[in-house]
Amino acid sequence: xxxxxxxxxxxxxxxxxxxxxxxxxxxxxxxxxxxxxxxxxxxxxxxxxxxxxxxxxxxxxxxxxxxxxxxxxxxxxxxxxxxxxxxxxxxxxxxxxxxxxxxxxxxxxxxxxxxxxxxxxxxxxxxxx
Length: 129
Hints:
The protein is mainly beta. The protein contains 1 helix and 11 strands, in the order E-E-E-E-E-E-E-E-E-H-E-E.
């Protein structure tokens, strides 16, 4: 069993930065693929970024590429999402999620919320113009 605890988030102005953290517990967390998703009101939950169990392979949605950075600290069992140059359209609840399956046929599977087995409680990020 894996449990995910999130921290970070808040309200900022456009152009500012925020960092989200996801602390995983449970012996199997280190072998999971971890993704960050976001969900705006009335919209579906969308993939933002993901990192494999080694921390060496990272993936981003086109909408955040070049502005967000995902990193994994295996010693601390944490995955962080550094968000820079924030825009009002980044406003959403952000969730970290873990996929038990170490490998998937394609990265496309990692972009689907239904792929993930464990979810954090969510963190509100609000970006004002």
